[in-house]
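Quick one, tokens below. Sequence please?
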């Protein structure tokens, strides 16, 4: 227990003020999406996520920024009071990156096996899955290409 606590303190001490703000933003956006998933139809939720995709700030190195924000979203999800599954995590990362002018794709895939069906959501930037294993697209078949296409966007 103490080893884990010490590790968390060490990680927290290494965060910059920008990281702390990003972590706080991710925590609140995760909460909002987690609640919205239970209350709002997915097409309205996705349209909201796309509507907040503005172009006010283009990052010179969008991929590095995306990986950094993915790390903060994962950290916020672990610190959350609610259990955060892949869908609120992916929606949160998609929204946060969109606010920075980084265009991403929200992907939802399924994996059918003899034991049942699994679904997974993730974010891609330039064809690269952010924060996912390299074989994610081999493990999960995309639903109609990606979430934007499945909604007719």
């Amino acid at each position: 227990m103490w080893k884990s606590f010490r590790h968390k303190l060490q990680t927290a001490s290494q965060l910059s003020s920008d990281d702390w703000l990003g972590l706080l933003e991710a925590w609140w956006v995760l909460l909002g999406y987690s609640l919205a998933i239970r209350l709002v139809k997915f097409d309205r939720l996705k349209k909201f996520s796309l509507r907040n995709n503005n172009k006010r700030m283009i990052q010179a190195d969008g991929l590095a920024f995306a990986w950094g924000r993915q790390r903060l979203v994962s950290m916020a999800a672990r610190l959350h009071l609610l259990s955060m599954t892949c869908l609120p995590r992916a929606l949160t990362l998609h929204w946060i990156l969109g606010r920075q002018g980084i265009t991403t794709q929200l992907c939802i895939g399924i994996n059918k096996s003899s034991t049942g069906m699994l679904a997974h959501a993730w974010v891609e930037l330039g064809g690269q899955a952010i924060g996912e294993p390299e074989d994610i697209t081999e493990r999960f078949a995309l639903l109609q290409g990606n979430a934007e296409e499945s909604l007719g966007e």
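The radius of gyration is 16 Å. Strands lie at 105-113, 116-125, 128-129, 141-142.
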